[in-house]
Specification:
heterodimer; A: Rna Polymerase Sigma Factor, Chain: A; two-stranded parallel sheet; 19 helices; 2 strands; B: alpha+beta; Alpha-Beta Plaits
Chain lengths: 421, 117
């Protein structure tokens, strides 16, 4: 008998391929999901009782195919169309490629530009990564019924708006692939800085995003942006343990104990980024982000960080997202980088300019408080900001919904007030 | 699948175009219409007069209320439409990107509901 945990992992790793295949055969998500559940359940029962088949993927494929044919017969699909489906019985390596195409169709559909960010991430977690409904709901701290409604609305839109279940072609593919990478990165960020809840990092969501990143590298070998996204996530995630205290409070980059970073993972991230850069494709969004992350990861200390180099990469990155409203968070980071190079006036005036787009974004107020404090400490008056650093920190405190961040902000506020006496 | 392409732009800005500029816009729309006709997806399409010419009708408590102008104050106004029969949303979005007004206004792409029977 095979281990139950191993069986479940194996089933989950193939879930997206089988679901993709069923959606293509049946032409809609709802019927495909029903049959998909049936296939997975059969696998669970059979494999637990009789052990793993020689070729689990082929087993899942045949089971899915037979169920689909039964389903289509029951719904009176013409025999002619059925025969067309039955002919296709790829074997071995051919089968893997065959099903990977269906997985790609699924991935592109779930990240279609006509779906909003939240929907894309939820659909991808559920359909591509094969998480249970309750797990997806947990990831976003909503009830399973709320998540179910969100997914039902998404599938309704896919059907009614005529979103095709296809791999984009031609010029479209680069744009659409970027959309897929964005979905995975959104997912990673949701795990990395949980927008609400008790702990700062939702480890399992980060792991799902990393898993999807690796999957995309397998599916798009030799694509610099796909490699760069994986490198970026590995480099960010390497700081996971250093980002909070034992009591769960947030620790900012400047205060982190760098020996607690995962140096093996940094090494891997840097290697993958090198592979990406080695492809000599035109530098694009994720490669530039990963380059910035790499410069941070390689710095001995916060003070010894190569801020000038980071500033230059930001300037190139910002050219890729010329519309300020699309990239306000990147501009915000750039303002901090300017200050780190001693350019307090430039940093603070950029912050003032950015404020309308970041009114409810608490890191904005934290950054402005810190920049004001740094400017004062360096004897540079900077530009005058209407609110004091303490007021900015209080504003940040009122906006965050994450306990780890709240703890940090309270401690920082206390520290500043004590200093002032 | 049939889609309606609702073309929105700021009509105040549009009204400031010189005659020559306006002719150039018509020319581009003419080319687009030719394209969708030749590709066999065209069903209908028209420009609309400015919103100042419109009247909104509502019936409240049994009385007909006719009011001047469009329903809501918005930055962009409906200025025209197309109805095209496309294979799927991706094809529809590709056509939407070719509508001249997409460059400064916006194009809403809505599937037309299929009524049973």
């Amino acid at each position: 008998m095979a281990e139950p945990g191993k069986i479940e992992d194996l089933i989950k790793s193939h879930a997206g391929k089988i679901l993709g295949y069923l959606i293509r055969l049946l032409g809609n998500f709802d019927d495909a999901e029903d049959l998909h559940q049936e296939v997975l359940l059969k696998a669970l029962v059979h494999w637990r009782a009789q052990g793993l088949p020689q070729e689990p993927l082929a087993w899942l494929f045949m089971t899915a195919k037979n169920l689909a044919i039964d389903h289509l017969r029951r719904h009176q699909t013409a025999e002619k169309n059925l025969q067309k489906l039955q002919i296709e019985s790829p074997q071995g390596d051919e089968l893997t490629g065959y099903l990977e195409d269906d997985l790609l169709r699924l991935i592109f559909t779930c990240s279609h530009p006509s779906l909003n960010d939240e929907t894309r991430v939820s659909l991808t977690l559920r359909s591509v990564a094969g998480l249970r409904l309750s797990e997806v709901a947990n990831a976003f701290l909503v009830s399973p019924s709320t998540m179910e409604q969100r997914l039902v609305r998404a599938k309704r839109k896919i059907k009614l708006a005529g979103i095709p279940f296809e791999i984009p072609t031609g010029q479209q593919i680069a744009v659409r692939l970027h959309g897929v990478l964005q979905t995975v990165y959104l997912l990673f960020n949701e795990g990395y800085s949980a927008s609400s809840g008790a702990s700062l990092v939702n480890v399992s969501i980060c792991d799902e995003a990393l898993g999807l990143g690796k999957l995309l590298v397998d599916l798009f070998p030799g694509n610099a942006e796909v490699l760069a996204l994986l490198a970026l996530m590995l480099l960010q995630d390497s700081r996971r343990d250093a980002r909070s205290t034992d009591t769960g409070a947030l620790v900012l980059l400047k205060d982190q104990n760098r020996t607690n970073w995962n140096h093996d993972q940094i090494k891997l991230g840097l290697e993958i980024l090198d592979q990406s850069l080695g492809l000599k494709q035109r530098p694009a969004f994720f490669q530039l982000q990963a380059t910035i992350a790499a410069l941070h990861a390689q710095a001995e200390s916060f003070e010894k960080t190569d801020w000038a180099e980071i500033g230059l990469v930001y300037q190139v990155l910002l050219k890729h997202v010329p519309v300020k409203s699309d990239a306000v968070v990147i501009w915000l980071n750039y303002a901090v980088v300017l200050a780190m190079q001693g350019q307090f006036q430039e940093g603070l005036s950029l912050l003032t300019e950015l404020q309308p787009g970041l009114l409810n974004y608490h890191p904005y107020y934290l950054a402005r408080a810190e920049l004001q404090l740094m400017a004062t400490e360096a004897g540079d008056p900077g530009i005058s900001i209407d609110t004091s650093p303490e007021e900015d920190l209080e504003k940040a405190l009122s906006l965050t919904r994450n306990d780890a961040e709240r703890q940090y902000l309270q401690a920082r506020l206390k520290q500043i007030r004590q200093k002032k006496g | 699948m049939r889609y309606i392409f609702l073309i929105y732009e700021n009509e105040v800005i549009a009204a400031q175009r010189t005659e020559q500029e306006q002719m150039a816009v018509y020319e581009r729309y003419f080319t687009f219409t030719e394209l969708v006709r030749s590709e066999g997806v065209y069903e209908a399409g028209d420009p609309l007069e400015e919103t100042a010419t419109s009247t909104t009708v509502r019936i409240r408590e049994g009385s007909i209320l006719n009011t001047d102008g469009p329903f809501a104050e918005t930055k962009e106004q409906l200025g025209g439409y197309y109805i095209l029969d496309c294979a799927d949303l991706d094809q529809a979005l590709a056509y939407a990107a070719k509508i001249p007004t997409a460059e400064h206004g916006s194009i809403e792409v809505r599937p037309i509901m299929q009524l049973p029977g």
